[in-house]
Design a protein that fits this description.
four-stranded mixed β-sheet, globular, binds D-malate, putative 2-phosphosulfolactate phosphatase, single chain, alpha/beta
Length: 273
């Protein structure tokens, strides 16, 4: 398995030119899009449809041709972190995972547009498989990747605006650790020992690019105080400064509370896969 990481959203446009037909793309927008989608699915949402633009989301909801039962459709997402109110429409949901409670989302299709997360997902549409991942479903995602034995895995960090987001790189590194540790010829090798070597365990089945090694090393450095490390990131600072959203940061850093694989199908819908 070859693992590569996209560390910045500036790298996303180039994906359109790449042949991703044998690649599994794993998209991380820890704060908060992919954490929110995973939570929605865990709470019974039928599917999430990520779209890039507000107008696209509104048009999709209004299009009875594309989706027959429009009553089951909710509009979700954010601009500048808050729920969208545009084109004469108040969106049903913002982008806080804590809003996506079972009583709100069960059985619903959620059309969502966010600043970075949904664009990163859309940038991967030509891949063999596209997954939405977060700390909330990290182990389930790693197990799926190992089970399916992909030859190439691209970890896509959605970022914050035009910049790298620390929390996305940390989650990508955490996934690398799960993949590397379990595929190493030294299955008992622990993170501390990997760290002492200052590099990855010798890659046998795993072939890690420099970008994946960067993510892993950053994760190994930060994992003992994940909340502390993330609290210094631009995205966390922004959310922590908004009283009604500050709890989202701790929520999104919980590990493996949603044991599911969030997979985007050829129809652009993310469901439990
Ligand atoms: C994004 O897609 O950029 C976000 O998830 C931002 C947010 O939730 O505030």
């Amino acid at each position: 398995m070859k693992i590569e990481t996209i560390l910045t959203p500036a790298e996303l446009p180039a994906l359109a030119q790449r042949d991703l037909r044998a690649t599994a793309c794993v998209v991380f927008d820890v704060l908060r899009a992919t954490s929110t989608f995973v939570t929605a699915l865990h709470h019974g949402a039928q599917a999430i449809i990520p779209v890039s633009e507000i107008a696209e989301a509104v048009a999709l909801k209004n299009s009875k041709l594309k989706i027959k039962n429009s009553k089951s459709i909710l509009l979700g997402g954010e601009r500048n972190g808050v729920r969208i109110s545009a084109e004469g429409i108040d969106f049903d949901l913002g982008n806080s995972p804590r809003e996506y409670r079972p009583e709100k989302v069960r059985g619903k299709i959620i059309v969502s547009t966010t600043t970075n997360g949904t664009r990163a997902l859309r940038a991967c549409v030509n891949a063999q498989t596209v997954l939405a991942a977060s700390f909330l479903n990290l182990t389930a995602t790693a197990e799926f990747l190992r089970r399916e034995n992909f030859t190439s895995v691209l970890l896509v960090c959605a970022g914050t605006g035009e910049n790298t987001a620390l929390e996305d790189v940390l989650a990508a590194g955490a996934l690398c650790e799960l993949l590397v540790e379990r595929d190493s010829v030294e299955p008992t090798l622990k993170s501390r020992e990997i760290r002492a070597r200052g590099t990855l365990a010798p890659p046998h089945k795993i072939d890690s690019s420099d970008s994946a090694q960067i993510a892993l090393l950053v994760w190994l450095e930060a994992k003992s105080d994940l909340a502390g490390a993330v609290s210094s990131s631009a995205n966390a600072r922004r959310l922590l400064a908004i009283p009604e959203l500050r709890e989202d940061v701790a929520f999104c850093l919980q590990q493996d509370i949603c044991p599911l694989v969030a997979r985007m199908g050829a129809d652009g819908k993310i469901g439990c896969g």
